[in-house]
Design goal:
Elements lengths: L8 H13 L3 E5 L9 H11 L6 E5 L11 H15 L6 E4 L4 H7 L3 E4 L11 H6 L10 H7 L3 E5 L5 H7 L4 E2 L2 H12 L4 H5 L6 E5 L18 H13 L5 E4 L3 H18 L18
Helix pairs in contact: 8-10
Organism: Micromonospora radicis
Pfam family, one: AAA_28
Protein name: Transcriptional regulator
């Protein structure tokens, strides 16, 4: 039972240790609604990681009750959430890597089993991951690492330098469905609801301006007369995206300089995740 904010190698080690000793395992993922990583994502990541142990089930419940290990009423409130998630079957053992594991087991009339309390086998915590995802990436599964990737998307009309810019910063840039929607409207007359619904929010858009950029007719491009319209469509679309937009104009070397500066600023800002609910007397160390 925990927040798994986010799931990391320490959590997986605990689940595997439990699965190795139990015929049935229930893992309750219980974040507060204020937290930044969706509950559905955490459940999906855990189920994917532990697909080889089908006797382990992952159950998600939101738990917005205050955390206070010294307050019996707070314990009662949290345990009510956990009990509802686990079901009516008796709990034989509670496996935990937390100091509160013993009290939690007592309240379920179960045997407490402590696993790597001092984090010696897997020296990682949720607090550490949230503070520095890149520095802790070795402890994260591929799907979790992908969630933390800062996505920078280059968009623009035909022959405005988007390919050049993407190639110059290939390690950081990709297309996304918002850009796809713009091109869908260009060729089909409208952008479908399915494409717009699939748009995943990036961290930054770079919009290449067509002004002053010669049209390069490579035999496939056919939209020289539409470049101005597409630039304005992308500009209007991105205004409502809620994502920072940097427009690139002028000579290409200047574009690259501005793009690199924008990316450096983005990366320097780090990640801003909402804090979990924690006991007021101690810092969260592994949620």
């Amino acid at each position: 039972m925990g927040k798994f904010y986010p799931p990391h190698a320490g959590h997986h080690a605990l689940v595997r240790a439990t699965a190795a000793r139990c015929a049935r395992v229930s893992v309750v993922v219980a974040p507060a609604r204020r937290e930044s990583i969706p509950l559905a994502d955490r459940l999906a990541w855990l189920r994917e990681e532990h697909a080889d142990t089908p006797w382990v089930r992952f159950v998600g419940r939101y738990d917005d009750r205050p955390v206070d290990y010294a307050d019996p009423a707070a314990w009662d409130a949290h345990c009510a959430v956990f009990r509802e998630a686990v079901g009516a079957d008796p709990v034989d053992a509670v496996f935990s890597s937390e100091t509160y594991g013993e009290e939690l087991a007592r309240r379920f009339a179960a045997v407490p089993v402590c696993v790597d309390l001092r984090r010696r086998a897997v020296p990682v915590s949720g607090t550490g991951v949230r503070a520095d995802p890149v520095g802790h990436r070795r402890w994260l599964g591929p799907a979790v690492r992908a969630w933390f990737v800062r996505r920078v998307v280059v968009v623009g009309a035909e022959s405005t330098g988007t390919t050049t810019m993407a190639a110059a910063l290939a390690a950081h840039y990709d297309t996304d469905t918002r850009a796809t929607g713009g091109w869908e409207e260009r060729y089909l007359g409208s952008a479908s609801a399915q494409v717009r619904a699939a748009a995943r929010r990036p961290a930054l858009y770079l919009l290449t301006d067509h002004v002053g950029v010669p049209f390069d007719d490579d035999g496939l491009r056919d939209g020289a007369h539409l470049r101005g319209w597409m630039t304005e469509r992308f500009r209007a679309e991105l205004v409502d995206s809620g994502v920072p937009v940097v427009e690139l104009s002028g000579a290409h070397p200047q574009w690259l300089s501005r793009a690199v500066a924008a990316c450096d600023e983005l990366l320097a800002a780090g990640w801003s995740l909402a804090d979990p609910l924690v006991d007021p007397t101690e810092a969260a160390t592994s949620t």
